[in-house]
UniProtKB/TrEMBL annotation:
Keywords: Membrane, Transmembrane, Transmembrane helix. InterPro entries: DUF998. This is DUF998 domain-containing protein. The chain crosses the membrane at residues 12-33, 53-78, 90-108, 128-149, 161-178, 190-208.
Length: 218
């Protein structure tokens, strides 16, 4: 089980993960702010690149998401029941949080050529490492918790909705990886936004499951 009581630790983890999920979806503010980023072809890293207007908005949101995710995972590891799958999931979520904070602190530099022929210009910068670690961390966490949800029959928030979010995110990731090896334009901005949205929704599903604080049905 994720947790077996509704004590302060449970509520803290549930709320922290939920706020992290909402903060991680702050990229949608690009449609409300006077920005000129093409959502079809631009990467989200461009929103908080060095010198970009409103960089502080997206950088702050990522920092909040990372700090809360890491704190929630640390509390869960210390206070929640431990099993191989859930421990793996919480450790991976902790890594996601740390990498997301680093992602915000090491922004994309000189993004004037981000829309050029190179599909992934970020890969030539340190920002790529932190982004890769963040995505890998939450992917491992999602796989671990999804497997645990089916094995121990958690509620639908994580077993069904969470699994759907994981599947959508994985499909978007495959889209990006395959397109990286092809010539032409494959709307990678859309793919990345789907990927990040799926990650945010999965965090919300995890928060709902923790908030339920009910034992698994054997």
């Amino acid at each position: 089980m994720l947790t077996s009581d509704r004590g302060p630790a449970t509520w803290f983890v549930a709320i922290a993960v939920a706020v992290a999920g909402l903060s991680y979806s702050a990229w949608v503010l690009q449609f409300a702010l006077p920005l000129h980023a093409d959502p079809v072809h631009s990467f989200l890293s461009e929103l908080d690149a060095e010198g970009k207007p409103y960089r502080w908005v997206f950088s702050t949101a990522d920092t909040v998401a990372g700090v809360l995710a890491a704190l929630a995972a640390a509390v869960a590891l210390a206070r929640f029941p431990r099993g191989p799958l859930t421990v793996t999931g919480w450790i991976a979520l902790l890594c996601f949080g740390a990498a997301t904070v680093a992602d915000a602190r090491v922004p994309l530099r000189d993004c004037t050529d981000c829309g050029g022929s190179d599909l992934f210009p970020q890969l030539h910068q340190p920002h790529a490492l932190t982004s890769t670690l963040a995505v890998t961390g939450i992917a491992v966490a999602a796989f671990a918790f999804t497997r645990a949800a089916f094995r121990y029959r958690y509620g639908p928030a994580l077993r069904e909705f969470g699994a759907l979010a994981l599947a959508v995110g994985a499909a978007a990731t495959v889209w990006m990886l395959v397109a990286d090896n092809l010539s032409g334009d494959y709307a990678l901005g859309i793919a990345q936004r789907i990927q990040v949205t799926a990650m945010s929704l999965w965090l919300l599903a995890l928060a709902l499951e923790v908030g339920r604080a009910s034992p698994p049905r054997r």
